[in-house]
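for ur thesis appendix - Beta-propeller repeat-containing protein. copy paste whatever u need, i formatted it the way the template wanted (i think)
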Amino acid sequence: MLKYGHLKVWILSIFIMGFLACTKHHNAPEPPVVTPPVDTLPTVPVETDTIKDVFMVGTEYEMSTQRDYATFWHNGVASRLPGGVSSSPTAIALDGEDVYIAGAIELQNGDARAVIWKNGQLIPLVDTMDTEGEFRTPSVATDITVHDHKVYVAGMMTSTDLEQYAALWVDGKSEKLDEGPEGGAAQAIGFTTSGDMYIMGAVIQDHYVIPSLWKNGVRSTLDYAITAFDMTVKGEDIYIVCSYNSDSYYGLPCVVKNGELYAPLNDFTSANKMAVTDTGVYVAGQTYIDWSALSWQNGQTIHLPGFTANDIAVNGEDIYVVGNFMDGGLQYGRLWKNGMVQPLSDSLAYSNITSIALRK
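the 3d part is after this line
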């Protein structure tokens, strides 16, 4: 399994905060019913499914070594990505015929090393700011996107004084993001139509995890968020799914658009990823009430036959969700299309699909 050093503590703190946030306060008022706005996105003709390639990434756990290995699915066929004692992918992005995957590999000393895979080839991410020419671990790449033919990667690095901080790589060149005094990590990245770069993540200040948003490198605090799960940029609009911080929705997963409440996810215990298209807003997550995977589609919650929904992608009226399900005590990766389970050529035990991208 990957070791993330102090980052493990940071991730654990976010998990604990998210879990506690999802516990309803006995003294909190019943949240009002809010109907998500229907006029905020343009009405466009809905296209039929024209998808040529479905790309997915996740992990396969191998019993013989007791380690996770990064796995890539192309149209349902699985293959293992190279590198490391173990490995874990976090995100996938497409640029023409090129497929980029962000993640981390485990080194021999047990630390995590941030990497990307381009068309299956491993490319370690380095600290180009270190004048001593060294690279300190742990580090991890958490999200990736391609903008104007440049590859942008968000994540976390370790500095020369062994502090861990939110980081950005642009075509392999590293930058440190403005942050709190106790470090942090970047989690999601996107660009507006006008070219502004937004990065969502968190910093640690006075031992508290502070959800944050960087615009062109300048950080601001997401005061409305207890825990931020994901961010998507559409046009000039910034969508964030988070555990909401208000008297009416304290701890409830909600979608926020440009800092304002867009819609509560009343049936969700936790949310993972989101997608925004011309036809609406879509969220993948789960509920711990009956331990089932959920997708949220323009105000409607869909219960999926599975355990966790990790990511979601949309093409016209067709909605693709990836995650996992449990069978006989074993966990298997799963793909749903419009709520229906899709066949995978390899039913890998102890597998989990975490990210998806579609190519027309």
